[in-house]
């Protein structure tokens, strides 16, 4: 086998139809990392751990992976500089797009299946996708501009509430909660991820009941709260759930991407004519391992965006989950920074969101984002409508660059929220 069939320099391959994947791995210091990387390049494409008949030079040229780079961590060039029993590396491999095409399932199997799931403990930490590959994905149908047109709010951060309690109630009970919350001026009200399409609270019935509640609140306030219905279910039921909900009047739907898979989100986005919210529920096991899985900004940011999510619920470092600040910011960037032709998705900051932390989120993410407040709305000491008003008052203060404590002197609801939930989390 020629070296050029198995190895390549970055400059010679970056503009070709290859996906470039970088992995972190640790090996015993005496192990041959070149051999390990070469084995993965073959094992993730045409080969296996032993020689097999039938592999031709043409197959190697067109379909075999290539080792592009190996980086020592720390950057050691002498064997005497490795003082520990293990050595850490970043290895960069290139996979031909023709092996899997423009789809998530086989791409993920190529990136993290076979060797990466049987004989090599690696974590995928970087991914560079060629324009030709991403060009086959439509991405968000509405994106940030479409969501702003839908809400009629051109500048400020949008406000979303997730109904609490999470589940266990009927549509009529949920509609009462919806109405009280909508009176406070929220832009979106969604189901909690724990409420799908159970018999005691069918999704399509919720759409009708919540639609009436939205109309009633609009008549009183002149502000429309848009319901986002959770359609997460078995793969063969998600699209039908969405269709029934849209027929019942839903203006947006929600799905938990880690539970149903990115390809189901993609099918949903391409077939339903309303914005799609992608929720991170259940995504933790995909990125929490140090020596397995893949980096969280891809799990929670880029892949949902490629699949077509217009809104993406994300975790943050402020709600009790130990997410690194860097990863939170990178995930938001993967959702919203320019990326080929894809429209930007709108990040939703969730988990422990309350009026006292609004200013920090605006500083972190800017104004093209959504604040997902649950307990601080339903748990406000003056009721859900007051909780929503307190969030809106904090948003207005942040937009006007007024310290939230100063704004609280003018607003009873905001003052009560700061007393109850504190400042900055």
From TrEMBL:
Domain of life from the UniProt record: Bacteria
Domain Ribulose bisphosphate carboxylase large subunit ferrodoxin-like N-terminal intervals: 18-132
Keywords, ordered alphabetically: Isomerase, Magnesium, Metal-binding
The protein's required cofactors: Mg(2+)
GO molecular function, one term: 2,3-diketo-5-methylthiopentyl-1-phosphate enolase activity
UniProt cross-references to Pfam families, sorted A to Z: RuBisCO_large, RuBisCO_large_N
Domain (Ribulose bisphosphate carboxylase large subunit C-terminal): residue spans on this chain: 144-421
PROSITE patterns: RUBISCO_LARGE
InterPro entries, per the entry: RuBisCO, RuBisCo_large_chain_AS, RuBisCO_lsu_C, RuBisCO_lsu_C_sf, RuBisCO_lsu_fd_N, RuBisCO_lsu_N_sf
GO biological process: carbon fixation
SUPFAM superfamilies from the UniProt entry: RuBisCo, C-terminal domain, RuBisCO, large subunit, small (N-terminal) domain
Family of this protein: Belongs to the RuBisCO large chain family.
Official protein name in the record: 2,3-diketo-5-methylthiopentyl-1-phosphate enolase
Source organism per UniProt: Caproicibacter fermentans
């Amino acid at each position: 086998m020629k070296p050029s069939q198995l190895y390549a320099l970055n400059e010679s391959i970056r503009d070709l139809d290859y996906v470039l994947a970088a992995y972190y791995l640790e090996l015993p210091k005496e192990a041959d990392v070149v051999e390990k990387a070469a084995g993965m390049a073959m094992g993730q494409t045409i080969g296996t751990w032993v020689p097999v008949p039938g592999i031709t030079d043409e197959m190697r040229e067109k379909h075999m992976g290539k080792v592009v780079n190996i980086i020592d961590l720390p950057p050691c060039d002498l064997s005497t500089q490795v003082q520990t029993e293990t050595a850490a590396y970043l290895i960069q491999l290139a996979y031909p797009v023709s092996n899997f095409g423009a789809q998530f399932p086989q791409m993920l199997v190529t990136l993290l299946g076979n060797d990466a799931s049987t004989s090599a403990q690696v974590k995928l930490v970087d991914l560079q996708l060629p324009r030709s590959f991403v060009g086959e994905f439509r991405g968000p149908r509405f994106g940030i501009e479409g969501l702003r047109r839908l809400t009629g709010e051109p500048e400020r951060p949008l406000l979303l509430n997730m109904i609490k309690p999470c589940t266990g109630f009927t549509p009529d009970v949920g509609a009462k909660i919806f109405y009280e919350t909508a009176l406070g001026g929220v832009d979106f009200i969604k189901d909690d991820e724990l409420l799908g399409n159970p018999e005691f609270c069918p999704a399509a019935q919720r759409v009708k009941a919540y639609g009436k509640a939205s109309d009633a609140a609009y008549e009183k306030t002149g502000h429309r709260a848009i319901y986002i219905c959770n359609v997460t279910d078995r793969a063969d039921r998600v699209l039908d759930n969405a269709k029934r909900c849209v027929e019942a009047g839903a203006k947006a739907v929600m799905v938990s991407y880690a539970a149903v898979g990115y390809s189901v989100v993609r099918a949903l986005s391409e077939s339903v004519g309303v914005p799609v919210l992608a929720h991170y529920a259940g995504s933790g096991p995909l990125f929490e391992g140090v020596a397995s899985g893949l980096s969280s900004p891809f799990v929670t940011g880029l892949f949902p965006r490629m699949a077509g999510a217009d809104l993406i619920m994300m975790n943050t470092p402020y709600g009790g989950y130990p997410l690194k600040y860097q990863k939170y910011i990178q995930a938001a960037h993967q959702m919203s920074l320019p990326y080929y032709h894809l429209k930007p998705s709108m990040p939703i900051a969730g988990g422990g969101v309350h009026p006292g932390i609004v200013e920090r989120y605006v500083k972190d993410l800017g104004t093209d984002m959504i604040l997902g407040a649950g307990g601080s709305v339903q748990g406000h000491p003056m009721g859900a409508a007051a909780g929503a008003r307190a969030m809106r008052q904090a948003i207005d203060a942040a937009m006007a660059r007024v310290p939230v404590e100063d704004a609280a002197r003018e607003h009873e609801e905001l003052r009560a929220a700061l007393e109850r939930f504190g400042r900055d989390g």
